[in-house]
Design brief:
The chain is built from eight helices and no strands. With about 180 residues, the protein is mainly alpha-helical.
C-alpha cells in the first residue's frame, strides 16, 4: 500500500505556500557576529542591556502581555444619566414618528429599517434605549429646523465604535438618520 505525504508526515506544499526559508550558514553567522561585536564595542550599552539574570533581553523569553480593561470615558454619545421613562414602546413610537417624515429612501427600505429596529428594541438595555431616544428626539428637532444632521450621524457612528454588539440596530438607525429629509 502506498502512503501519501500526509500519512508519512512529510511537508505538504500547497499552491499558495511560501517557499521554505533556507538560512545559509555564512549570512546568519556573520550577522550574529556583527551584532555581538557592536555590543562588545560599547560596554556601557552592553552592561545596561543585561537583565538581573545576566542575560541579554534578546536571550530572555518574551513576557506575556496582560490584557487590561480600558475604562471608556463618557462621551456626548453616551448619556450620563439614565432615565427610566424611555420604555421600548416610547422609543418605538419616536422611531415611527421619525419615519413618518419625508425621506429620500424608498418606502420598502424604510419599512425594513423600522422592522429591524423594532425587532431589537424590546431586548435593549436602558442605556441603549436612552441613546436611541436622544438621537430620535434630536433628529426630530433638526428635521423641523432644517439644520444639518451630520453631527447626529457622527454620534451614531461613535456609539457604534464604543459599544460592542450594537451594529444590528445602530446600522438601521444610521440609515434612518441619513435618509430622512
Amino acid at each position: 500500500m502506498t502512503l501519501t505525504k500526509y500519512q508519512r508526515g512529510d511537508q505538504i506544499e500547497g499552491w499558495n505556500d511560501c517557499p521554505p526559508m533556507v538560512m545559509s550558514r555564512t549570512s546568519s553567522s556573520s550577522s550574529v557576529l556583527k551584532s555581538k561585536s557592536r555590543r562588545a564595542a560599547n560596554p556601557v550599552a552592553a552592561a545596561s542591556s543585561r537583565s538581573s539574570s545576566g542575560l541579554l533581553p534578546s536571550e530572555l523569553s518574551p513576557t506575556p502581555t496582560i490584557a487590561t480593561a480600558i475604562p471608556t470615558a463618557t462621551s456626548p454619545a453616551t448619556p450620563t444619566s439614565l432615565s427610566s421613562d424611555h420604555s421600548p414602546e416610547v422609543v418605538a413610537a419616536l422611531i415611527h414618528s421619525v419615519l413618518q417624515k419625508p425621506s429620500k429612501l424608498p418606502e420598502r427600505e424604510l419599512a425594513h429599517y423600522e422592522q429591524k429596529l423594532g425587532a431589537h428594541i424590546k431586548s435593549l438595555s436602558l442605556q441603549h434605549l436612552d441613546f436611541i431616544h436622544s438621537v430620535t428626539t434630536r433628529l426630530l428637532a433638526v428635521i423641523d429646523s432644517g439644520e444639518s444632521r451630520e453631527d447626529i450621524k457622527k454620534e451614531v457612528l461613535d456609539y457604534m465604535i464604543l459599544h460592542d454588539g450594537v451594529s444590528l440596530w445602530c446600522s438601521p438607525l444610521k440609515k434612518i438618520v441619513t435618509g430622512v429629509v
